[in-house]
Amino acid sequence: MAIQKTKRDFPLDHIRNIGIIAHIDAGKTTTTERILFYTGKTYKIGNIDEGTTVTDWMEQEKERGITIVSAAITTFWKDFRINIIDTPGHVDFTAEVERSLRVLDGGVIVLDASSGVQSQTETVWRQANKYSVPLIAFANKMDVVGADFLGTIQSARDKLGANAIAYNLPIGKENDFKGVVDLLTQKAIIWEGDETGAKFHETEISADMVDLVKIHREKLVEEISGTDDVLMEKFLEGQEINVEELKKALRVAVIANKIVPVLAGSSLRNKGVQPMLDCVVEYLPSPQDVTALSGIDPLPQSPLSALAFKIQVDPHVGKLTYIRVYSGTLKSGSYVYNSTKQIKERVGRLLLMHANDREEIDEAYAGEIVAAVGLKDTKTGDTLCDETNPIILESINFPDPVISLAIEPKTKSDQERLGYALNRLSEEDPTFRVKSDQETGQTIIAGMGELQLEVLVDRMKREFKVEASVGQPQVAYKETITKEAEGEGKYIRQTGGRGQYGHCLLRIEPLPRGQGREFESKVVGGAIPREFIPPIEKGVIEKEDTGILAGYPVTDIKVTVFDGSFHDVDSSEIAFKIAGSLGLSEACKKADMILIEPIMKVEVTTPEEFLGDIIGDLSSKRAQILSSEARGNAKVVIALVPLAEMHGYATSIRSMSQGRATYYMEADHYEPVPQNITAKIVESSGFTGRVEH
Ligand code: GDP
Q1: Cβ of 28 below 6 Å from ligand 1
Q2: Which tens digits make up the pLDDT trace of 445-471?
Q3: Residues forming the annotated binding site for GTP?
Q4: Res 64: pLDDT
Q5: Which residues lie below 8 Å from residue 30, measured CB to CB, with a gap of 6+?
Q6: pLDDT value of position 88
Q7: What CATH number labels 7-205+259-292?
Q8: Is residue 171 classed as helix, strand or coil in its secondary structure?
Q9: Which is deepest, 44, 154, 393, 497, by most CB within 10 Å?
Q10: Which CATH class is domain 479-592?
Q11: What pLDDT was estimated at residue 603?
């Protein structure tokens, strides 16, 4: 593939960082494909049904038909550079969606004109709103039987409370869909055929559409004028407002999230994509428009500030760190300051990622998105900047994992591949953690949701060829203590030959929730020689990791070793390590241990008719309802619910609401598990609660 010669002299206002946002099946992949084709970056149109598209390059995405990774692709349209940041369509990948929404300046939301606004569209639309991402909408699939452009706009207005308004009108529909009328210029655009790259021409509006165009142009003009005082006056006085004035005001209104222009098209039949690209450059914000709001000076000569928003392992170049530069210039081969981690990092090569080639560049300027090779410790959400002008851009918070599952590799070589695979995968996804269970020898992976773990396991098997058996997802309970206690740990074996002698006295006390663990030594007078304190701590930590009550890690605990004894000959590190572990067990058993469980903050959005059922169902799940209020014309219920009760919720909420209610959840905090449930968990854990000697 030829290396694209890049025009490097793009002024900032000629850059657009956008996402194509859609729910599954609306046509995001096909639309992205067409955009890449029309912007000259792909030479052969990929066909999603054959699984050969550019953005969905992961095998697994092809199979599931969903997009999981956010790659960034650079393209060009009419003197503008458009960076397309891939946004996942699936709600379970909240971390992915959030991190991609943070770095894009505007979005094209793809709607399915043949089925109106579906529940998943509501979800992505709401997510975009949360980050005030200016949007234009593309009503796709106008060629499909039942396609209804105005109906789709109406449902966007009704269901989303969005100020969606027709920007153009379809000419013909279903099999006869052949073009669009631009309401501002009042010109018809007709495509001469269905095939990729079909020519199109501008022509006069046909007589049968004149009235319809008049009505909808009037609506659009009124809507635009309503956002601008000067235009409003002209409008009310019946004065002519010219197209330039209207476009200028519409740009301001779109950027302020006051209007969402809607365009008709059919990506599959190659119609309507080019006018949509024109709207991207005309109405969606440049980095300048957006960063002006945040107070960062988006100039190449300003000090560097940049955000790492995605780490991806590329089969050809290794680890890529996707970076959005907010101000200044990022240079290849230079050192940058990672202000989040407070370390210096060397940037190796910088790559602009095109659809099917990558281009090496020396510098990336404010407003640009690049992939860097060679950063070692920079993770998603870290800020890179100039050491003399440190700044921390608002980071992305990744909560502790709340769900885990066990993996057992089949053979020794699978074990090795597993280690490598998990290392790589956890680098890409900051909410994904790995640890190994010392006792069972199993590897435990943990994350934020069932689907996330499922996808990771899949990738591990396919991309890294690890054969392994995988357990059921488990809630990440933790153990903690509720009162102070003391315990004695004695490991003494003195029968013939060299013996073992380790002995310590421990005091434990509860720490506030979320505080983690502490360890301290208050041994005086040499009761235990100093070199044996670290082994005691090691024994304590190992026991804390293994758990005492039911095999879950012990947290929010302070351990103090305050006394003990030793033997000149028989004492050893190992003996004190065992003593530490025994001492902790004994103390914990006197400290009224409890289990604590992750409590999720669940937000359900539902049409009013299902509200009663949904609240009833939540109440049966030990939920605490925090609020229930109207948002637009939907009801939003916010509740705290134990994760253990949320298993299979995606399915049950669908059947309760005919697929119309949606939900998000995120881990909020840990709370004690009720007594009766604790008893069951302890019983099935195989932990007896006895102190092992
Ligand atoms: P995504 O899940 O949002 O990425 O959607 P895809 O681009 O994979 O499209 C889903 C399905 O709809 C595929 O079978 C496409 O061929 C089909 N499709 C996409 N756009 C159109 C369109 O404009 N018209 C018709 N008839 N089908 C389309």
Answers
A1: yes
A2: 988 777 778 888 988 898 889 999 998
A3: 22-29, 86-90, 140-143
A4: 38
A5: 48, 140, 267, 268
A6: 63
A7: 3.40.50.300
A8: strand
A9: 393
A10: alpha beta
A11: 83
How far apart CA 629 and CA 377 sit, in angstroms, is 44
Looking at ligand 1, which atom is closest to the CA of residue 26? Answer: 3
Domain boundaries, the chain: 7-205+259-292, 295-385, 403-476, 479-592, 596-678
Domain 403-476 fold is Alpha-Beta Plaits (3.30.70)
What CATH number has the domain spanning 295-385? Answer: 2.40.30.10
Ranges of residues in the chain with a pLDDT under 50 are 1-7, 41-52, 54-70, 91, 293, 690-693
Q: What confidence score (pLDDT) does residue 125 get?
A: 79
Ligand 1 atom showing the smallest separation from residue 140 Cα: 23
For residue 686 the two structure tokens come to 């195989």
Give me the pLDDT at residue 66, please. Answer: 33
- Fold match between 7-205+259-292 and 403-476? no
Q: Is 266 in the pocket of ligand 1 (CB under 6 A)?
A: yes
The answer to whether 280 and 136 have CB atoms below 8 angstroms apart is yes
* Ligand 1 center–CA 41 separation, angstroms: 20
Six-digit token string for 444:
């435990």
Does residue 29 have its Cβ closer than 6 Å to ligand 1?
A: yes
Using the mean position of ligand 1's atoms as its centre, give its distance from the Cα of residue 112 in Å: 9
The separation between the first and the last C-alpha atoms of the chain, rounded to the nearest angstrom, is: 69
DSSP β-bridge partners for residue 606: 635
Nearest alpha carbon, ligand 1 atom 11? 25
Q: How far is the CA of 310 from the centre of ligand 1 (A)?
A: 27
Ligand 1 pocket test, pick from 20, 21, 35, 48 with the greatest ligand atom count within 8 Å of Cβ, gives 48
Q: Whose CA is nearest to atom 17 of ligand 1?
A: 27
Write down the residue that tokens 């010392």 correspond to: 438
Nearest CA to ligand 1 atom 24: 141
